[in-house]
Amino acid sequence: MTEDISPKRTELSELGEFGLIDRLTAGLKPFNASTLKGVGDDCAVIDHGDHVSLITKDLLIEGVHFDLSYAPLKHLGYKAAAVNISDIVAMNGKAEQMLVGISVSNRFSVEALEELYAGIRLACERYKVDLVGGDTTSSVSGLFISITVIGRASKDEVVYRNTARQNDLICVSGDLGGAYMGLLLLEREKQVYKANPQMQPDLEGFDYILERQLKPEPRTDVLEKLRKAGIKPTAMIDISDGLASEILHIAKDSGLGCRIYENKIPVDIVTAEVAAEFQIDPVTAAMNGGEDYELLFTADVNDFEKLKELKGIHIIGHMTEKAEGEYLISEGGSLYPIEAQGFNHMRDKQA
Amino acid sequence: MTEDISPKRTELSELGEFGLIDRLTAGLKPFNASTLKGVGDDCAVIDHGDHVSLITKDLLIEGVHFDLSYAPLKHLGYKAAAVNISDIVAMNGKAEQMLVGISVSNRFSVEALEELYAGIRLACERYKVDLVGGDTTSSVSGLFISITVIGRASKDEVVYRNTARQNDLICVSGDLGGAYMGLLLLEREKQVYKANPQMQPDLEGFDYILERQLKPEPRTDVLEKLRKAGIKPTAMIDISDGLASEILHIAKDSGLGCRIYENKIPVDIVTAEVAAEFQIDPVTAAMNGGEDYELLFTADVNDFEKLKELKGIHIIGHMTEKAEGEYLISEGGSLYPIEAQGFNHMRDKQA
């Protein structure tokens, strides 16, 4: 086998996803003047004069990112579309086109694929995105979804993740940790069902966190709210891997440090209740759970009064100079270093 | 399992790839004025005022599109990039950016992925394409490659596949059938090796067709040649599924018929020799083999003299009115209806 001839073998799990991408894309220099931004943000950015294209691509892999025993195909299609649209939103852009690549084994019927597409098309209708192409092919086993979304923004609208400034406020939309608690709940009920197929899943009263896990929504409404309030974020990212991982991206890429106040992190009551049941600190769920697809952004301190008035936006901390490091401040005032322990699919699933 | 709840189950193999895409994308209407062309050409086309973006996405799946026992990872990376760039070329555009999605099991090492990326990066350097992003994740088994390429063209340069006109000349670049014979050769040597691992593969003298299969090149040089000669194709497509399938796309999408002359179809001498060895008509290899990534285009009859002078361009037939149908004319003057029997991965691999 070709992959075995190399004298040195480094396991993928040694590097993790970000380390691997860094290594594979090291030393790239653009050939085309139209390439404004390559690897290293939510989207690539392509110049078209007065405006830019924003392009993002995400893979969803059966057995790694989803489990069909509890993710209905229609929800899965919706989520696959939504998480890509969310990447465009995280650059302050408008998603306009989508390409869908699907590879399936013959375990799936045409009707199953139609269900999946129904979810994709529902998300496209909701967010006014045009399905313009793709590729459908068979696989030896399993379902692989690869989605590319193309967005648009005027040049002065685009918000990168590496442009936060010292003293900027750190803000987050919605609430965090819910998607992760929804996942734990679904996993638990799956185990119960496997042990005793007569048992009905006990999911009543948990609609909110189940929806957070199964049907996330890109926060186009937050962009609209900020625009109306006359606030332009100084840096922005969407929360796919957990608050810890995302604020570290903003801090490190901007060459800064940060402080986040534990008691400012928004957590929904259902999330907190389920977390208590699982004996998990809800702040841990928010910091490391991931998949909330809320927006994390920084804003000028002068926007403080305006931000305070915006419902569903929470000021959770501020950026510092780099030397001060990245810390979570507990209610008692203790400092805990922020570490990315989010969903690292490379590391988790291949251990 | 969710995919089993549907009362009706239609097998994917009943529809085939094109039928399936038609069904999944039926009734789509664009929301955005920027969407000039959706599903149904080599690329989607997005409006940017004076110019357009061309976007294409192709999946390459282990066990379906490639076999790592004879496709070296570096070649595979190169081919994955090249076939996507070829889709941009087929719209008469210039490929500028690429996003790469890779899903791998832990059977692969970091070094193996570096080999794959070395091939992708080599193609990007050769064709001056910027690698601007993507996604790398684990899979439960196998290697999945999803590539998106973004190209650019001025608005009056773009060539679609549905714009051929009656009496237009049908032309093809290079020669056909080689990639398919290369594949058959590799498959045969694999079987020989499996039967007796002491046997060395007998591939000497077959470099040309092996290269056709393992390392196809997008024909940017043909576009340049046509531009210099002042010829703009009236319709164009690249040959990924075989000449038969591609000319039917042009004919049906343009609402026309066509005549192709068997003795005009360009076949390399090595292709013909190996075809003889396998007792396959080389014309069959050209019509139905696929993966040659040559350009098939139509041009105005008034360009006949100019086209005749262009080395490596072959005039193989002409477009007719729709009622005359689509036919291959044998040397003896017999008419054979053209039927798409190309690589239909959905149908072949799931039977």
From TrEMBL, chains A, B:
MF term (GO), any: ATP binding
Catalytic activity: thiamine phosphate + ATP = thiamine diphosphate + ADP
UniProt keyword Magnesium present: yes
UniProt xrefs under SUPFAM superfamilies: PurM C-terminal domain-like, PurM N-terminal domain-like
Entry keywords, A to Z: ATP-binding, Kinase, Magnesium, Metal-binding, Nucleotide-binding, Thiamine biosynthesis, Transferase
InterPro entries assigned to the protein according to its UniProt record, in alphabetical order: PurM-like_C_dom (IPR010918), PurM-like_C_sf (IPR036676), PurM-like_N (IPR016188), PurM-like_N_sf (IPR036921), ThiL-like (IPR006283)
Record: residues binding substrate: 65, 291, 343
Domain PurM-like C-terminal: 218-324
Cross-referenced CDD domains: ThiL
Residues the record lists as binding Mg(2+) 5: 241
Binding-site residues for Mg(2+) 2, renumbered to this chain: 58, 87
Binding site for Mg(2+) 3: 42, 87, 238
Pfam families assigned to the protein according to its UniProt record, in alphabetical order: AIRS, AIRS_C
Metabolic or biological pathway, per its Swiss-Prot or TrEMBL entry: Cofactor biosynthesis; thiamine diphosphate biosynthesis; thiamine diphosphate from thiamine phosphate: step 1/1
Residues binding Mg(2+) 4, per UniProt: 42, 56, 87
Domain PurM-like N-terminal: 40-152
Residues at which ATP binds: 117, 134-135, 161, 240
Biological process, per Gene Ontology: thiamine biosynthetic process; thiamine diphosphate biosynthetic process
Positions of Mg(2+) 1 binding: 58, 135
EC number: 2.7.4.16
Function: Catalyzes the ATP-dependent phosphorylation of thiamine-monophosphate (TMP) to form thiamine-pyrophosphate (TPP), the active form of vitamin B1.
Family statement drawn from the similarity comment of this UniProt entry: Belongs to the thiamine-monophosphate kinase family.
Additional comment: Reaction mechanism of ThiL seems to utilize a direct, inline transfer of the gamma-phosphate of ATP to TMP rather than a phosphorylated enzyme intermediate.
Protein name: Thiamine-monophosphate kinase
